[in-house]
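Hi, does anyone understand the following?
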Amino acid sequence: MNLPIVKVAAVHAAPVYMDAAATVSKAVALIEEAARHGAELVAFPESFVPGFPVWAALWAPIYNHDWFRRMVSNSILVNGPEMAQIQGAARRNGVFVSLGFSESTEVSVGCIWNSNVIVGDDGAILNHHRKLVPTFYEKMVWAAGDGHGLRVSDTRIGRLGALICGENTNPLARYSLAAQGEQIHISAWPAIWPTRMPSSGMNFDNLAANRIRAGGHSFEAKVFGILNAGFMDKTMFDALAASGDHQAVEVLENTPRAATQFLDPTGAVIGDTLQAEEGIAYATFDLNDCIEPKQFHDIVGYYNRFDIFNVEIDRRRLAPVKFSPDNANAKAEPRGDRIGIADPTSIDVA
């Protein structure tokens, strides 16, 4: 067996905060830059387009209506013109792209999801995943996703899988990808994730928590990991601090920053690490290194008890309505790829 050796890039960059068009233009430029440096896979952080809703952590919902409207108006369709620009950049540069984005839908003006796509080097969308459960204050922004995107994409550079932020805390979500032969796992994270006032000394440590979860998956599944975090620049900081709320400024200034780094199949850090500065991190993955650790414990092979543990994943795409064929208005039914008509396929990894 001779598996690929691939150079990967992780974008540790800030969006043009709450500006989808400008952020997509920035993403295209970053894809081109990474491709010039030999990357074959370019990954972006959680909700890179149009930015992570940190404001939901800073203020109660009754103060966030304007922020929510701004977020909704800058969320994008998976089959819209902004995504087409990302697909075009992937195709022109012959690279694979993993993009975190806030997804809108044509069937509601206010429903958005925390989503991720993997785009092929031919520009086709290989997988489209919606975060299963928005975490903590994210519930006030995004709707819950479904299992449709719990898929691994089999490509010329390896089998690619991705989960969003706290999903990497869910053993069953991670196992669903491992059980499909995943070899490169992309975990996408925000720049900061406040949970308490910094003065309490008990805030959520992005650096440690993300490293533990991503490292655990690399070690358990014997896969390479791209731990891809966002970055908060001055523009984003100033936008969030513009209210003059001193407590909000304290949170923004002193909440631990997340890091972007890479992991080998033992969970060890390899390649570049970025935390305090914006840029693109690079690493080289020799997928042949996934083989030897499987001798020790292959959780989707011999090192399991499928006679005891039975796991079934429902991958139907949830939809708000089902139209019967004999309905007089059936011809007005929105396209399935826009509203997520149920996909009957499912996998039984047991």
Observations:
- The chain has two domains: 5-294, 312-348.
